[in-house]
Records
---
Amino acid sequence: MGQTILVTGGAGFIGSNLIRFIMQNRPDDRVINLDGLTYAGNLESLAEFTDNPRYEFVHSDISDSEKLDEVMPRVDCVLHLAAESHVDRSIHDPSLFLRTNIIGTQMLLDAFKKHKGKDGRFVYVSTDEVYGELPLDDKSQLFTESTPLKPNSPYAVSKTGGDMLARAYWHTYGMDVCITRCSNNFGPYQFPEKVIPLFVNNLIEGKTVPLYGDGSNIRDWLHVLDHCEAICRVLDDGKSGEAYNIGGNNERSNLELTRMLIELCDRDESAIERVPDRLGHDKRYAIDATKIKRELDWEPTRSAWPEALELTVQWYKDNRAWCDHVRSGEYRRFYEQNYAART
Ligand code: NAD
Ligand code: DAU
């Protein structure tokens, strides 16, 4: 039987891909997209679902308890993605990160407890950044689910707060909670402040790309739809109270990534602008995803490079209007015409 899934942060990068994934692959389910539409939320990413009876948009902050009281009784489960998500912004000003990612998560958990109690699953979408960093010179080391949490940036601390709170609501109140910890995502609809869409946009527009430090930092890249599939697998079959690592088995240094993007955009290495390093820049993230493979039979199938990266670059080349709107704030017109005007 179908269920009503509340997706928070559904107007963002992963949330919009997740909603499309659910709408296309789970025809019995309904989606409520609850999003506060910060600079990172763009409803144009979900334009094709605006009038679909299985989809509903609720414009709300995750800490608006009155709105949550209206929505939660109609919900069977929650996929909680809404967050401030950009590490550089958290370094500049941590306060909003703590408010949204910790207090906001607590308010959402409380609303779910109040209306659903132990009846229905709450999935907290966390990050591999909760584990801190790995050294560059020992590739045998990977993050497992039992690696101690040692977050380094204000963003990572705020996500760890939410992650630990979600676990505490399972432990203390017996709620049905699962946690996912994923590596770096790539794919369509990513806000162009994150390294891949930022660099692709700059390269297309004939600008330089700001590579932090010596470019040796390593990230493990996963296609966003592989992440979406893993989240749904955890929703359906994850064990309550457990965390699941999700990774692409696709480690690349930032310099290697930059060179691939330069080639895909027909530029040369003079496009690289070396800029001062990010403060406290984590050296390497690398995921051991054997638990989710063993227990939930999930592994990435869409993340292989160069093919998947090439398709992503092509999406940004083909969708200049989306990029321009989200960067300029013009995307708000879509919300005003399609949603705000109707209420
Ligand atoms: P994003 O910044 O693209 O989207 C975040 C969304 O949350 C936006 O639509 C925004 O409007 C909404 N939002 C922010 N604050 C809100 C609030 N107070 N109330 C309601 N809505 C609010 O982020 P993303 O990259 O799609 O990441 C989604 C989630 O996945 C985050 O929790 C992030 O920590 C996690 N995650 C991201 C990655 C990655 O590589 N992007 C990897 C692992 C985990
Ligand atoms: O690992 C999961 C995390 O991945 C998520 O939890 C975060 O929400 C998501 O933003 C991402 O964090 P990163 O900091 O790894 O992503 P970002 O795209 O900001 O940076 C990727 C790498 O590229 C990082 O080593 C810093 C570098 N970089 C980034 C930018 C924006 C640059 O060299 N230049 C840049 O301008």
---
Amino acid sequence: MDARSVIASVRDGCARPDGLAWFARGLADGTVTDAQAGAFAMAVLLKGLGDEGRVALTRAMRDSGDRLRWDLPGPVVDKHSTGGVGDSISLLLAPALACCGVYVPMVSGRGLGHTGGTLDKLESIPGFTVDTGEPRLRALMREVGCAIVSASGRIAPADRRLYAIRDVTGTVESVDLITASILSKKLAAGLGALVLDVKVGSGAFLPALEQARTLARALVDTANGAGCRTSALVTDMDRPLARTAGNALEVAEVMDTLTGRAVTPRLVDLTVALGGEILALCGQTPDATQGAARIRAVLTDGRAVERFGRMVVAQGGPADFVDRYATLLRPAPVIRPVPAPAPGTIAAIDTRAVGEAVVHLGGGRLRGGDPVDPRVGFSDLAAPGDAVGPDRPLALVHAADPAGAEAAIAALQAAVRMGEAPAPVALVQERIA
Ligand code: URA
């Protein structure tokens, strides 16, 4: 077996499971070069692997490193999103679930393509560390009940490598690669139940509803087939999920919501829907509706924010973060309004373009290993249906310098289409179980 012949077999639509498994091992142990990994990813994206190949790649990537086993007095659960813009749900959901008697060793990712990454967001908190290693992760489960960490070098190392290469080679948008990427990490983390947030709309990697359904089905079938109780919600990403996009800005919005200072209802509603699913899947509540009620209660009565604060401290952040986040999160040096292109109503937003604008501001990576500027992005984002004009800009841009601000202003203006208010779109569009 060698990398060139496996790549050629994928290119020619005749990849075999043992070849894919060999390639996954080669990613982990360094036998496969970066160039070969990029070519492999592009061949998979263009040709697809089929059901059998997708399952083989997922399992081999899962087995490319350690598999965790837990001995905790409650179910071990997690959620994963296929990637969005302004989507900071993990920061609310992990502590909320931990308040409901389940354990959440959340293994998260960095920004991918135009989408934000949970780890990049959390690293905007001074001192917060996501590279904990397994012994510390186990301690965090006992001390706090939740943690948000990077996959250690030993969990699905094949994905760690391929993920970074896909991010910079235009090879994210593949049902097979997304499935193998997400599930290799999640299945290796030893979960009892998993809920997937599969995005649909202009900010999703796979924007069309039919593609999102196919991805949701592939994820749910592959995960359940591997013994992890899993369901998926297909949710709206035809607009940024919340009012901010950018690492520190999203953390501030989460804190405003958790503390009740300024609640973003869509953050709460999606957290409640996903959390309700999880609590039902792992048998903590008889159904998702009762699960949702429990999550809503802990989000609003202060328990979730208290747990978030404990998680921050346990992962190296400031003890007073919950009280002083507004001063502890560093602001960008340039903050300017983004004028509406014309007065009127927003008909649509190209959400991917908003995410790309954040990446170009420095909030994501254009090349592997680029540093991320936590301060930049957009706040006060207007949404489809909102009236904008001289008194209501499209957003505030937060930039490292005036040139960056100007480029982002032009990009956001170009991402917006003015016209009739669109028909309302449900945040949760479908459930796939
Ligand atoms: N999240 C992941 O972990 N991997 C993907 O490919 C997409 C979203």
